[in-house]
Specification:
The complex is a heterodimer of chains A (289) and B (290).
Chain A (H helix, E strand, L loop, with lengths): L1 H32 L2 E2 L7 E2 L3 H9 L1 H32 L6 H13 L2 H11 L6 H8 L13 H12 L2 H12 L3 H9 L4 H29 L3 H6 L11 H11 L3 H29 L5
Antiparallel strand pairs in A: 1-2
Chain B lengths: L10 H29 L3 H4 L12 H4 L7 H7 L4 H32 L5 H12 L3 H14 L18 H13 L2 H9 L4 H12 L1 H17 L2 H6 L8 H11 L4 H21 L1 H11 L4
Helix pairs in contact in B: 1-14, 4-14, 5-8, 5-11, 5-13, 9-10, 13-14
The chains are: A mainly alpha (289), B mainly alpha (290).
Membrane topology (chain B): Multi-pass membrane protein
Pfam family, one (chain B): BPD_transp_1
Subcellular location (chain B): Cell membrane
């Protein structure tokens, strides 16, 4: 059997080596770095807990970025979930042309992120962009979307909702897995469409919703690139997301020790929220048929 | 697979559903149509007349009056886009080969071989999927810098060869469903484990491998973070990074910007229409949303 064990390790060795060198070692190194002053160029210098102390007591932007990120997670994730489930329910109807609608809803989610940033910075141009020219058509003068508060924040939320098609497809697959016999039984019992949706479809979909909720929340806390490209954190830091601030700290100010402390706090927050979500899990997630 | 739905709708309900679906399509499709339309517009079509400060929407202004195909040529002449494309394709090819092959190896190990510590290692593998990249970003950067790889494409290539936890998870599920006697037949023939893997298992896993290849291609094609950290020389930009740089330097040349964005999106859309099944099944079985 020892031969087989050796073979096993050999087969997983690419991953195992990568894990040791590019995940485990950096993971531990970053704890150490969070207690140092480090600028990449000169060696790290031990400063004890002062990075954490500065973060918690002297850095209003740390708190602000945390609030912005939390707000994003609380708005974009639930709205995205409702929209994704709602659209999947619509696409599960037995009407003609459903393939066209499915493609239309799904297409934005495969548009590369940098391309959708370019498109939205153009669509949201205050004077000649599509959004405000449509609003003008109905007599409303729209805001300077990306450069005014609170619109910059909501523009980014809107952009994330535009690509909701990715999670919608997962919900749709979940809907297709609901056994038809359940509906047949409900129809016999005289349940109407609304009752069937609330008492059969949605409970059967809760495992998928839970999965998307967890992944969506984890991703929301790492939200970075769109804000970096579109707003650079402005105006008035209203779109300085946590990960964006962390990035600025590390690469603009080369304050790597401080950024490592921020990364660790982020890690702890993500673990706590995931644990919290798993705690609620038994209350509302329905398994089995 | 289509079963007659017990939820048949009445005629009226069907019409209502169509109305809702069509209305919903508009905000999802409009930006894409607008992107392509703008890329073919002349500046007179895009910017308001002298006596106006802003543009009010009307349907006839949606499409270009006289398609300006030269916008594409002009846009591509603003930078070495042929180099960006070459870099992107090089990275995509190497990342796909590296990630798919090494993930398949590891997945096979986890699925079919017995070794001490397997369960624990697999849990670690799953856990790494939830680890924010910001935690490892700085030390990993330091490692690549010490190796002298900063400013080269190597930091964007080499990590792929260590496998992707997500693909390993997906392929492991797949390998576990393959009946054991297929592999045993190989053992009786005296084939080594690697030959069983490469000649029996890999061909059987083709659909799952294609799904992984597609996802890796998309991830590498779209990747913005990697080049942002490691690339400083314009000759080594990828298309994604080049587009972002273009936004910064030619921000108001909307027609040209949209031309580049269209060209950057086009391969993905073509890929989607060619491999729609792989996309949709792959995403629904893996639950991958970037």
């Amino acid at each position: 059997m020892r031969g087989q064990a050796l073979k096993g390790y050999l087969f997983i060795s690419p991953w195992l080596i990568g894990f040791a060198l590019l995940v485990a070692a950096p993971f531990i190194a970053s704890i150490y770095l969070s207690f140092t002053h480090y600028d990449i160029i000169s060696p790290a210098e031990w400063v004890g807990g002062s990075n954490y102390k500065r973060l918690f007591t002297e850095d209003p932007l740390f708190w602000k970025s945390l609030v912005v990120t939390l707000k994003y997670a609380l708005v974009a994730v639930p709205v995205g979930t409702v929209l994704g489930v709602g659209m999947a329910l619509l696409l599960n109807l037995d009407v003609r042309g459903i393939r066209f609608y499915r493609t239309a809803f799904y297409l934005p989610s495969i548009v590369p992120m940098v391309a959708s940033c370019a498109v939205f910075s153009w669509v949201l141009n205050p004077h000649i962009g599509l959004m405000n020219s449509i609003l003008r058509g109905i007599g409303v003068e729209g805001p300077a979307w990306l450069t005014s508060e609170p619109w910059a924040f909501y523009s980014l939320v809107m952009m994330s909702l535009w690509s909701v098609g990715g999670s919608m497809i997962i919900y749709l697959a979940g809907l297709k897995d609901v056994p038809a016999s359940l509906y047949e039984a409900a129809v016999v019992d005289g349940a109407n469409a609304w009752q069937r949706t609330v008492h059969i479809t949605l409970p059967m979909l809760t495992p998928v919703i839970f999965f998307n909720l967890v992944m969506g929340t984890i991703n929301a806390f790492q939200y970075f690139a769109q804000a970096y490209i579109m707003t650079e954190g402005g105006p008035e830091d209203s779109t300085t997301f946590y990960a964006l601030y962390l990035f600025q700290r590390s690469w603009r100010y080369l304050d790597m020790g401080y950024a490592s402390a921020m990364a660790w706090i982020l890690f702890v927050i993500i673990m706590l929220i995931t644990a919290l979500l798993f705690k609620t899990h038994k209350k509302w997630v329905h398994y089995g048929r | 697979m289509k079963t007659k739905s017990p939820l048949s709708l009445t005629r009226r309900q069907k019409w209502a559903a169509h109305v809702v679906l069509v209305v919903l399509c508009i905000p999802f499709l409009m930006p894409i149509v607008w992107m392509v339309a703008t890329s073919l517009k002349s500046n007179e079509d895009i910017f308001p007349q002298e006596n106006q400060a802003a543009i009010t929407f009307n349907i006839s202004s949606m499409l270009p009056k006289d398609p300006q195909w030269q916008n594409y040529k002009a846009a591509l002449q603003t930078g070495p886009f042929h180099l960006y494309l070459r870099n992107s394709l090089l990275l995509c090819t190497l990342n796909v080969i590296g990630a798919v092959f090494s993930s398949a190896l590891a997945a096979y190990g986890f699925a079919r071989l017995r070794f001490p510590g397997k369960e624990g290692l697999f849990i670690l593998l799953i856990a790494t999927m939830a680890l924010p990249r910001h935690v490892t970003m700085i030390p990993v950067f330091t490692i690549f810098k010490m190796l002298g790889w900063y400013g080269t494409l190597l930091p964007l290539i080499v990590p792929a060869f260590f496998g992707n936890p997500f693909f390993i998870f997906l392929l492991r599920q797949f390998f576990q469903t393959i009946p054991a006697d297929l592999a045993e037949a190989g053992t009786i023939d005296g084939a080594g484990e690697f030959r069983i893997f490469s000649q029996i298992m890999l061909p059987l896993a083709k659909p799952a491998l294609i799904t992984c290849a597609l996802f890796q291609f998309l991830a590498t094609w779209n990747d913005f973070f990697g080049p942002l950290l490691y690339i400083n020389d314009p000759a080594k930009y990828t298309v994604a990074y080049g587009l972002q740089q273009f936004m910064g330097s030619h921000g108001t040349a909307w027609a040209q910007l949209m031309a580049v964005a269209t060209l950057f999106t086009l391969p993905i859309v073509i890929l989607f229409f060619c491999a729609q099944k792989v996309f949709i099944q792959g995403i629904s079985t893996t639950g991958a949303t970037r």
